[in-house]
Amino acid sequence: MTVPYYSQQNHGPFETFALGDFDLEGGDRLRGASLAYATFGTLAADGRNAILFPSWYSGTSKILELAYIGSDRALDPNKYFIILVNQIGNGLSSSPSNASAPFNAARFPRITIGDDVRAQHRLISEKFGIEQLALVLGGSMGAQQTYEWAVRFPDAVARAAPIGGTARTTPHNRLLVDTFIDAITSDPAFDSGWYKEGAVHRGLRRHARLFAVSGFTQTLFNQPGWRDLGFTTTDDFVTGFVENHFLPQDPNNLILLAQKWRDADVSRLTHHDLPAALGKIKARTSVIAIEEDVFFPLADIAAEQTLIPRSALKRVSSVWGHLALFGTDPGYNRTIDVHLTELLASH
Amino acid sequence: MTVPYYSQQNHGPFETFALGDFDLEGGDRLRGASLAYATFGTLAADGRNAILFPSWYSGTSKILELAYIGSDRALDPNKYFIILVNQIGNGLSSSPSNASAPFNAARFPRITIGDDVRAQHRLISEKFGIEQLALVLGGSMGAQQTYEWAVRFPDAVARAAPIGGTARTTPHNRLLVDTFIDAITSDPAFDSGWYKEGAVHRGLRRHARLFAVSGFTQTLFNQPGWRDLGFTTTDDFVTGFVENHFLPQDPNNLILLAQKWRDADVSRLTHHDLPAALGKIKARTSVIAIEEDVFFPLADIAAEQTLIPRSALKRVSSVWGHLALFGTDPGYNRTIDVHLTELLASH
User: Fold this and answer.
1) Largest CB tally within 10 Å, which of A156, B122, B237, B334?
2) Nearest to A206 among B175, B186, B214 (CB)
3) Does the predicted TM-score (pTM) go above 0.90?
4) Phi and psi at residue A36, to the nearest 5°
């Protein structure tokens, strides 16, 4: 089964890095594993201008490019060598949707954020010979990967900017993500993950609505800022924007990503001692919280930030809530660029 | 089909007031309609010490009694004649679960908040001869009924205290309530509302989890205050407290209530002019917002309050969020009593 959504046409151009047989934290072996990535700019001779930006839930390198990279942005390809990497399971890198039988679809092995970061470390060292990244950043699940990078490879990360995410998923967030998973798996057409392509559209629509209800702020719906995007009613917006985003995606891919999100926890590396894990971070870190974020509330993000040695809490406000990450709010984009520019100028 | 949950043993003692054939706003006729209610205290000779307190979503008069009434509480039956009334569709008053065929179950007519308030007006005038209530109050859907009372019968309401609710459901809240409904109706066992008793338990469990995710605050789950109730894990709490609450209830009842919640709008009475509707209120009104409420955010409640002539915005804070209404938080109970005592003392 190939899923047309995950094509070079929709998400490229992207390159592929072959990991070979890749042993996973859970004990499985991901055979013929690969990471899809896209680069912008030129790696400096001293190798010290590299930025790594992993993808978030249901996103690919394409949305990162569109929303964050430009000669007028903090992530300026004239100055930096920017690597946008697709997390495992997102449909471009190794995923349930593109794996070969028998380890395909519902039998694709379970992946952790730690697996992603170990694979990405091989990409930057083996492919590009980079020893230390000038910056690792990411939003949401990208923030989870950023924290994992900074804790697991402290000497390889000079600066870190986790945006709208936590280092250890909270009990409430775990519960929330479980409702996303249940929305898909409860569709009888899901059939334990052995569905026919397109069959799970009811579950995907329900999942999209749950995502919309807490992904955006209440103010966005009530005011309503989505009219600027050409939608006419609340339902038109939720259908045309959010259902439209999820409907062409593969249910097993989304569930794999959601499980990875739910189980993210850097304290796995320190016998469940979170202060010890975050205390290992050497990077200068700007912990960026979206003030209105319901997925990853400011209070949870701030509590972790106090445990990170060379860190500062930065805030950004947007009526788009967590999904301001998508770049739809010019005010969010400007503030993020201020924070990133400041961090990149620091030593 | 009788549903054992809605018994006198579980929710009584309660009385029943026969409405006879009751014509509904939607055009249907509810034949043999009745309201279940419970009273506390004695009606004064001048009839001016009566308090009306309608039920909220999925609740009955019993939880109102347990959480709000007592000789040491603002709602003191030694001083007031307190009428706890069950809204139509809650399983005690006329409901899909107790109606006779053919107008039972999925064919029970659609009910509006306006229908409830007209029925309740007949109860207080025909049964008790009350011309003006000293106070109408309610939480959540009870607040919706309180607003409807104050707008529809301005001379019959001396004081009003809507708690954690709005007079017109916001677009975001409509979307949220639709996810609750969908969680039930998407269960194949729901069978368009013609299910076998107990068959829809998966849908009810999903509904309960969605309710829990935004009904409580994130802080409650993360801290976690629910341990005080004897639960051991997040999942144990959600299952033992929230699923346990919804599982014995009737799916058609819940959906009827949810639709009523979603469509609540006092501006129906004034050609969709909300300021005109709220401007009709003569009651001295304490609009009480739960600061952490995700179902009915402070900002939405505050915006409506400014449109009510003799009103004040009162706040209460609780880590239990919207579901502080249940009375599990002593701090919430104390603050609510302060607000209600102050309002009852005002003229």
Assistant:
1) B237
2) B186
3) yes
4) -95, 140
What pLDDT is recorded for position B225?
73
Question: Residue A347: its pLDDT value, please?
Answer: 87
Quick check: B1 pLDDT over 70?
A: no
Q: Give mean pLDDT, residues B102-131.
A: 97
Chain B residue numbers with beta carbons less than 8 Å from the beta carbon of A299 are 218-219
Chain B touched by A187 (CB under 8 Å): yes
The answer for residues whose C-beta is within 8 angstroms of residue A191's C-beta and 6 or more apart is A199
More confident residue, A51 or A1: A51
Which run of H or E residues covers position B207? helix B201-215
Fold observed for domain A174-257 = Rna Polymerase Sigma Factor; Chain: A (1.10.1740)
**pLDDT at B80 > cutoff 60:** yes
Query: Of B144, B138, B137, B141, which Cα lies nearest the Cα of B168?
Result: B144
Q: What percent of chain A has pLDDT over 70?
A: 99
Closest CA to B184 of B211, B167, B206, B164: B206
User: HSE on the CB side for B50, CA within 13 Å?
Assistant: 25
Q: Is A293 a catalytic residue?
A: yes
The yes-or-no verdict on residue B74 having pLDDT over 70 is yes
- All residues of chain A having their beta carbon less than 8 Å from the beta carbon of residue B212 are 175
- The verdict on whether omega for the bond into residue B224 sits within 30 degrees of 0, i.e. cis, is yes
Query: What are the residue boundaries of the structural domains of chain A, listed by start?
Result: 4-169+264-345, 174-257
CA dihedral B151, B153, B156, B161 (to 10 degrees): -30
Is residue A72 part of the annotated active site? The answer reads: no
- d(CA B167, CA B175) in angstroms, rounded, equals 16
Closest by CA to A40, choosing from A78, A68, A82, is A82
Half-sphere exposure (CA, 13 Å, Cβ side) for A111? 31
Task: Please judge whether A174 and B297 are an interchain contact, meaning their C-beta atoms are less than 8 angstroms apart.
Answer: no
Evaluate whether A96 touches A108 at the Cβ level (below 8 Å).
Answer: yes
Give the per-residue pLDDT at A223.
81
| ipTM of the prediction | 0.89
The answer as to CATH 3.40.50.1820 being correct for domain A4-169+264-345 is yes
By CA distance, what is B188's nearest residue in A?
Answer: A188
C-alpha distance from residue A336 to each of A163, A173, A294 (Å): 9, 24, 18
What is residue B183's three-state secondary structure? helix
What is the model's pLDDT at position A239? 96
User: Could you give the residue ranges of the DSSP H alpha helices within A123-238?
Assistant: 141-152, 171-185, 201-215, 218-222, 234-237
Residue entry with tokens 């409650």: B220
Mean pLDDT calculated for residue range A162-181: 97
SS3 A167: coil
Mean pLDDT confidence for B320-339:
96
**d(Cα B90, Cα B57) in Å, to the nearest integer?**
8
